[in-house]
Amino acid sequence: MTDTIQTPDTPAATFTDFGLHPSILQAVAETGYTTPTPIQAEAMPLVMDGRDVMGAAQTGTGKTAAFTLPILHRLMQYANTSASPARHPVRALILTPTRELADQVSDSVITYSKSTPLRSTVVFGGVDIGPQREALRRGCEVLIATPGRLLDHVEQKNVNLGQVGILVLDEADRMLDMGFLPDLDRIVRLLPAKRQGLLFSATFSNEIRKLGRSYLTNPAEVEVAARNATAENVTQIAYPLAGSEKRAAVVHLVKSRGFNQVIVFSNTKIGTSRLARELVRDGVKAESIHGDKSQLDRMKALDAFKAGELEVLVATDVAARGLDVAGVPCVINYDLPHSAEDYVHRIGRTGRAGKSGEAIAFYAPEEERYLQDIEKLIKSKIPRGHLALPAVSRRPAAPVRGERRAYTPGSAPTRAVDDFFDKPYVPSNTVSSPATPERSKPAAESGKKSIGVLLGGGR
DNA sequence: AAAAAAT
User: Which residues form the Helicase ATP-binding domain (predicted)?
Assistant: First the structure.
């Protein structure tokens, strides 16, 4: 980590150059940020001019501030300090795909609007609707929401969207993935036709362009060099590991590398819960976050992680996009995501704000194909490594109380595992010279042999 | 393939 920042040959603008309203500029100054990121430098003047914008940018590129700051600036034209809700109609509506993201955008809006009379409210599902209803009835200029709960409020007539002059669709590609299109259509029909529209997405797919055509008017396109999300400050590596070794590998990495805050991505909600539970039993401070947990538990886990009370946050892809936790030094893909784009989003949780980060992937030999898909997308090779695990931690976990252990035939570890590590086959009941299985041969070597997966690829 | 989101 160096103190010097590599500057491109563009002149280093500062936030004072944008002509932001003084109250907003003051809040920016208090955050300590002075130099806008590329997406901010490009998008902010356009938004301040009232243009519609399609932006391609990962979160962590400063995207949230890139739309929040100019929106607040524009709203200051209407600002008043009256207590009447009628005097605080919703002027800007920001939609996000997940609840956590809505909460996070809300935090940002609160931060940047604190020296202004502008009010903001955030609404999303999974929590008591009452306080949200009260807040909406008190009035707010900026509303951040997930689509479902917003429509709920609309039906209950808690909010009127008839004066929304600015609409933001954040992580629009994700919203489409999640089937929000019908909800979005319903919401947009409630808005005035004359409005400013901003749409942010990781990529400009055909579907996104179509969405842009139907919701935006003559949008300017802002594409921040996709940074491949594999920013130079994120080191990537992939370790071939058998499923039975992955948990020990997490423990080993956390303990030996001294990572204080690691996000571990698993592909399933059940696997996520179980892994967190087992890690705790292994002496790792861990919690899980996924969509089957109550919103309260999700928020608790995230808050504990942000507060540094957890070493590991085990997560499904609910946390893959947009979540901004400062200073996460390492992301582990416990399972490889089956979509290469998800990989990019997941590892984007580390190496943020110019800090360095590590992205570690575990993979089984038959998953080599996914790794290659990812490499194709990010246009670079992910080095394969070999992780030497301390022999002792390879023992299977003792059963967690009240939980049935998966059935494992007592005397026969699966042959595939042993093949993979190029070891002689040793039934586990005869095992164990105490001076245990030093794996002399890098696992990656044997991984190379699985040519079958190469042939099997391609759709 | 699985995840997320109103109840």
Answer: 44-222
Q: Any atom of strand B under 7 A from CB of A370?
A: no
Instruction: Supply A270's token pair.
Output: 């059940």
CATH topology of domain A15-223: Rossmann fold (3.40.50)
Confidence class of residue A61 from pLDDT cuts 50, 70 and 90?
confident
Same fold, A15-223 and A234-406: yes
Distance in Å, residue A156 CA to nucleotide B1 C1': 37
| Domain residue extents for chain A | 15-223, 234-406
Strands A220-223 and A53-56: parallel
CA of A316 to C1' of B5 (A): 15
Measuring CA to CA, which residue among A362, A315, A331 is closest to residue A262? A331
Q: Residue A408: helix, strand or coil by DSSP?
A: coil
Which residue's alpha carbon is at the shortest distance from the C1' of B3? A317
Would you say the C-beta of A136 is within 7 Å of strand B?
no
What is the model's pTM? 0.75
CA distance A28 to A76: 15
From CA A106, how far away is CA A95, in angstroms rounded? 11
Model confidence over A99-142: pLDDT tens digits? Answer: 999 999 999 999 999 999 999 999 999 999 999 999 999 999 99
Q: What is the largest CA-CA distance in chain A?
A: 80
| Sequence letter at residue A12 | A
Interatomic distance A395 CA / B1 C1' (Å): 29
Within 7 Å of a protein beta carbon, the nucleotides of strand B are 1-7
Q: Cβ of A291 < 7 Å from strand B?
A: yes
Q: Is the CB of A96 under 7 A from strand B?
A: no
Compute φ and ψ for A139, nearest 5 degrees. 105, 145
What CATH topology corresponds to A234-406? Rossmann fold (3.40.50)
- Strand B contact with A339 (CB < 7 A): yes
Strand B contact at CB of residue A3, distance < 7 A? no
Query: Using CB atoms within 10 A of its CB, is residue A285 exposed (0-12), middle (13-18) or buried (19+)?
Result: middle
In the structure, how far is the CA atom of residue A290 from the C1' atom of nucleotide B5, in angstroms?
A: 12
pLDDT at A230: 55
